[in-house]
Amino acid sequence: MVHNQMDAEDITQEVMIRIWQNINKFNFLAARAWIMRTTHNLCIDYLRRNKNQYQRELSIDDNLSERIEDKRNAVMPDDALNQNMLDKNIKRAVEKLQERLKSPFVLYELQGFKYKEISKILDIPLSSVKVNILR
User: Fold this and answer.
1) Integer Cα distance of 112 and 53 in angstroms
2) Could you tell me if 104 and 68 lie in one domain?
3) Which among 103, 97, 100 has a CA at the least distance from the CA of 117?
4) Ranked by mean pLDDT, which of 58-62, 82-86, 100-104 comes out on top?
5) Opening angle at CA 28, ends 44 and 12, nearest 5
6) What's the pTM value of the predicted model, to 2 decimals?
7) Whether residue 78 is found in the same domain as residue 41
């Protein structure tokens, strides 16, 4: 969810610290749910704190290249030229999008995030996420 192993390890460590700090109140019967919810919330907090940096690092080229490569492996050789032209056109179209439209689109279509997650990451209403992706 945070797309960075070191940050994921930091979040894991923070979850363990919170368990330790709340050990007297900790319900071991609901441990899995509590750990999952805490981890999810810490990831959302991390993404929210690093929103601007994350948007700058959001690389259309990397994600699109991966998807293009996956598609190329499935495309017949005769179609490779057409596929390459289509990929370039898609990339140009995405690059032309306004930032408010580009970020939700890339997070949804290329990164695989859900609407609610995008809403939390970008700190915008869920309805705005849906509208911006559909535009």
Assistant:
1) 19
2) yes
3) 103
4) 100-104
5) 35
6) 0.45
7) no
36 and 11 in a single domain? The answer is yes
pLDDT at 79: 64
- Single-letter residue type at 124: I
**74 falls in which pLDDT band (50, 70, 90)?**
low
Q: Which token pair is 133?
A: 């992706």
Neighbours of 101 (CB within 10 A): 16
* Domain coverage including residue 35: 1-49
Length of the chain: 135
Q: What is the pLDDT of residue 13?
A: 92
Convert the pLDDT of each residue in 86-112 to its tens digit. Answer: 777 777 787 787 877 888 887 888 777
- Give counts: helices (H), strands (E), the chain: 8, 0
One DSSP character per residue, 1-25 reads: --S-HHHHHHHHHHHHHHHHHTTTT
Distance CA 29, CA 48 (A): 31
